[in-house]
Amino acid sequence: MSIAFAFIFGLLFGVTTSQSEANAATTKANVSQHLYKGLKFLKYPQVSGLTSKSAEKKINASLLGAAKKSYKAYLEVKKQEKEAKGDKNCKDFPSSCHYEYQSLYKVKYNTSGKLSILYTDYQYTGGAHGISAVTSYNYSLSSGKQYKISDILKTKSNFAKVQKYAYKYFSSHEPYSYFVNKVSDVPVNKNTQFYFTKGGIYLIFQEYEVGPYAAGNPTIKIPSSLYK
């Protein structure tokens, strides 16, 4: 009887352990860095260790697609550089015609079955400084679904509440208060970038959207109580 009990207990314990390991794999992804076409300035991530290989495949295809977009943008910048080098200004100020392109990423959230990765594409095409654009990629680790902000802010009322909340912050804090004078100065719409965080999301804005260039990409945490 005790042997049978031990066998059943061991079987149940083994199942529980396996299930626990599966849940752990779904809860958090392993993220590795890759270079697109071996170019050290075009970095992109890939995930592994997910319970659902279908989800893993979807996420990796999406992230690879982002790298391909960056590569196309890089080729366009190099084309512009080649054309610009025939200009007289380039001969007088050669450094201003040394164009640059770089793609980087940061893992902003990787727990509780969700993954947020923030891409930054930087380019310099002359002038005082370059400019960056940020794009967020947010996924469900169980299904591979890519979340849009409309999946989080599901109604017009949600968007309006979040916009007003962000406006109150930026309009009362320097250096943003010099740029934000009315609610519409803080764009919160389907194109607004975001990433997951504990207890809500962060909105992240592009350069110059709500502040000066020196402010970079301003962020603000939006508690989930505001939109749930």
UniProtKB/TrEMBL annotation:
Transmembrane segments: none
Domain called DUF3298: residue spans: 151-224
Superkingdom of origin organism: Bacteria
Signal peptide: 1-24
Domain Deacetylase PdaC, first and last residues per copy: 42-131
Record keywords: Signal
Name of the protein in its database record: DUF3298/DUF4163 domain-containing protein
Organism: Heyndrickxia shackletonii
